[in-house]
């Protein structure tokens, strides 16, 4: 299955929807950490997620499902003002936050 990266912006509201969105995104298969070839996990930049899904359409649907679940849990509108989902290929990355796999 292919791996996808997603980057998004949530419209700022009170209360902040971001912690709830991250919890819901994890429930939909999105992760905050990416595994490097050195078997170390690197924390992705804020508002960036990685996930492995059957297709681009499924990855997009899972991102939207996280938004809807956030909206349902918070009981108000949650707006994704911008987003992109792209298939992840060969890449280089670094982070100041790391974990052993």
TrEMBL record:
Q: What is this protein called?
A: Uncharacterized protein
């Amino acid at each position: 299955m292919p791996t996808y990266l997603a980057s998004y912006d949530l419209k700022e509201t009170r209360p902040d929807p971001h912690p709830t969105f991250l919890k819901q995104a994890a429930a939909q298969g999105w992760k905050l950490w990416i595994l490097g070839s050195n078997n170390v996990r690197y924390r992705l930049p804020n508002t960036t997620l990685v996930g492995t899904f059957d297709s681009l359409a499924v990855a997009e649907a899972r991102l939207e499902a996280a938004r809807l679940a956030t909206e349902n849990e918070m009981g108000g509108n949650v707006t994704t003002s911008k987003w992109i989902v792209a298939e992840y290929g060969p890449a280089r990355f670094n982070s100041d936050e790391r974990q052993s796999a």
